[in-house]
User: Fold this.
Amino acid sequence: MEKKAQELRYARSLIEASLDPLVTISTEGKITDMNEAWVNITGKTRNNIIDSNFGIYFTEPKKAREVYQEVFTKGFVKDYPLTVIDGALTEVLFNGSVYKGPDGEVLGAVVVARVITEQKRIEKELIEAKVFAELATLIAEEAQSKAELAAQTAVDAVKAKQQFLSNMSHEIRTPMNAIIGFTKVVLKTELSAKQKEYLTAIKMSGDALIVLINDILDLAKVDAGKMTFEQMPFKMAISISAMLHIFETKIQEKNLVLVKEYDNRIPEVLVGDPVRLHQIVLNLMSNAVKFTTKGKITVKAILLNEDDKQATIEFSISDSGIGIPVDKIGQIFEKFQQASSETARIYGGTGLGLAIVKQLVEQQGGQVQVKSEVEKGSTFSFILSFQKTNAEAETEETITALDTEIKNIKVLVVEDMALNQLLMKTLLDDFGFERDIAENGKIAIEKLARKSYDIILMDLQMPEMNGFEATEYIRNTLHSNIPIIALTADVTTVDVAKCKAVGMNDYIAKPVDERILFSKIVGLVKKSIHSNTIYPAKNDLHQKEKYVDLNYLNQRTKSDPALMLEMISIYLEQTPPLINAMKQSFQKQDWDSLHAAVHKMIPSFSIMGISSDFEGMAKKIQEYARSQQQIEDIADLVLQIEAVCTQACLELKEEFKKIKNTKS
Assistant:
């Protein structure tokens, strides 16, 4: 008896040890026993639970009955979901099986409920998180799409703006070129005092319009991130003197005193961008002269410090003019802003000059500062660093001096506008140069076929064949290295880069400065005449001196005609596509592709007996492409390698025919 009681207590302890609710059910569906966990989950007493129906404790009694019915039918049930009616509507999964008596008769079933409320909550949160994540992804993708659309719209807007400014520049500069150019020409003739006065007024008005155009275009380039800075040797002292010389007449007219203080410790030749320095100083000087009616203007250039590599210089321009109110100093460097609403009315101007100065200085790593007091004057200062060099600076004076060495220069002017044609004729006649006029690129090419010229002045925008197309044809089809200067009314960086990419040697912005035009013509003709390496022009393609020497190929193939023919065939097959790849990658400024194309060409130079000089040029292209240094030199090198390889192909075709005829 005692033993049985112990067994019962042991069985009870096992039942109570289960943390999951557990009940035993009779075959009629009545609860016969339970553990404390079941009591707790139902919230009822044991006495109330005993002999009660199993189904009444669940939200779906019918499904609850199916649980024990399935147990008695199948002998077990697994993971059957139900929801207990309690304060929290606890979700459970039932697992159970029948229990039998000694004779094998089914006495009832034992079912255990595993509470899964927490798992359900986590599952629900995971589902919600997944839904929210998918929604967030959709939102992010939509946002990205909108951002990409906005970015593309912005890019398109910048392109449209640049195109508009380019067109505007061309349309305004083209007639201005003629107006200012002819005014200068007429001013050199015999005139009455009144005529000279009127013409001077016309020239001054034209110059003012050009300044306005330059300001707007420069500002557009800054906004578009297209402003570039050259790195070239120049003489600082001469450069500043030339800038100040421009204002001497105006300063004398206003009875002002110009004081120049130049630090002689500044190295004679420095490396930087003299054109941008001119622009900065000219804008600041222009303001100083404009806003000063009495007193003096002081221009200083002081060496702050230097080391082995660079010199840091502080520039300042002080005036005794009207000054700037303290509350307006913060505004004057903003676009289209002046110190007061009366400034533009009284003194003129667009309010762009100082905005451009600020951008030019800051993009070179400097900063503009201003000190001013109303009715006492202003001082604008900025600090820039320049690289030191041992190189010589080539000045415009030295280029112009070449006139004594070169005579009878023949110039082909490619220009469609009658006024500009007449102006260029007048200027070139004054220089003593021989000139022909072509109305477009197509006519220019026809003239080149009939007559030789020393240099071409090429307008860019023309009907039938524009300047870019004509230059490409001259370089790639005629294989001519004749110097070409672009005459462009559009001075944006994009056009300058394109000029170099198609093979133009230089460019001049309209209205043309006759002194610069003369210097550039003489300089390029001089360089062309004394160039050590000249690639073949159209008329020289059948010259006596050949580019290909098959002696090496003869030795390597042991004079085997079949092998020689095979080697030549391979060269003729692979070279034209490589030439094309070299040109296209250069035009796209894809330096890796350019390097790869030239790399594949180099081995064939020695095999086909092409001079090692040209192999050296090809290696220079590789070097410049890899380092992206001296990029401006690549254009000429690419053109020369293209011409040499093209000529080599022509020669090898002839050799191929000879070898084949000899073999047969």
Q: What stands out?
A: The chain has four domains: 13-115, 232-388, 396-540, 551-663. The first strand starts at residue 22 and ends at 26.
